[in-house]
Amino acid sequence: MRAETIDVLLLTHPLVDNIALNLHSERCSGRGKRNLGQIPRFHTILFHTIFILASPFSWCMKKRVLFKNSNGQNLVGVLYIPMIGSKRLPCTIVCPGFLANKDWKFIPLLAEKLCTARFVVLCFDFTGNGESQGSLMQGTYSQKLLDLNAAINFMETVSYIDKKRIAVVGHSMGGAIAAIAASHDNRIKAAVLIATPAYTGKFEERDVKFIREASECLPKHGKVTVTTPDGSMHEITKEFIDDAMKQNVLSAAKKVTVPVLVVHGELDKTVPLGEGTEIFASLASEKKEFHVIKGAKHNFAKPEFEKELSDGLVNFLKSVLV
After folding, report:
1. pLDDT tens digits, residue range 67-118?
2. Helices 238-246 and 208-221: crossing angle, nearest 10°?
3. How far is CA 88 from the centre of its chain?
């Protein structure tokens, strides 16, 4: 299954940009302050080329891709590709949480840090989320499991990845998807579960507003409206909730034997820390680690929490896949 590539973007290094800007400003002293966009293109290309040769592990490229879900709809993803290297590289697939997408909060940071550690990374939008086709109500747990399967199938067509070194990373609902997939898909060689719910059927109980609306609307209309982080409104059906209640993360964890890192925020009220503890205890993996980030909530919404999360994740995956 080949992806349709849409665009390519070089992730520049801020140190190189500052060098180019400062040197050009010195040469143009007296002409006013310059910004990076005013520097002649050959200057920035020259400095970027020099820095790539001097520090090949600090660079990666982003490529937007499309692949199909089980219904023939387009799923949109972004590949983060290390720029230097001839060997086949380990791969990480990142699964966003409920209502989130590939560009949500700390996900790009995780991808960039993994890329600089020489992982090929795929961040993608599940069915009905972000830029992917379909409605949110189509994006059940069952459909998201099929979407992750499609993402793995796609990555197996990428010539520069090592098919024997594929990891999955998931946050919240995406973590549950990663755990369930890792329990039965032997192509997955490692997993990182971030703020992952042990009880998927409780997701409607985690938001007081959602509880109120669901209790009023579901019996009457069979659906309830939820608002995504970007302000758009979507309908969630009773079928969606019923599908969530059928999943069993703890049962799946008992079948997971690959290395797993479980990460949880100490003050997570959306998915309490105890659920992460239960998942960790249930894992059959010989190599497993549990990391609690003190002071962090569900979304790890502070730079220091994001750094601790991303650094720990990268170090763990390097230790088991590199």
Report:
1. 999 999 999 999 999 986 668 999 999 999 988 999 998 999 999 999 999 9
2. 120
3. 21
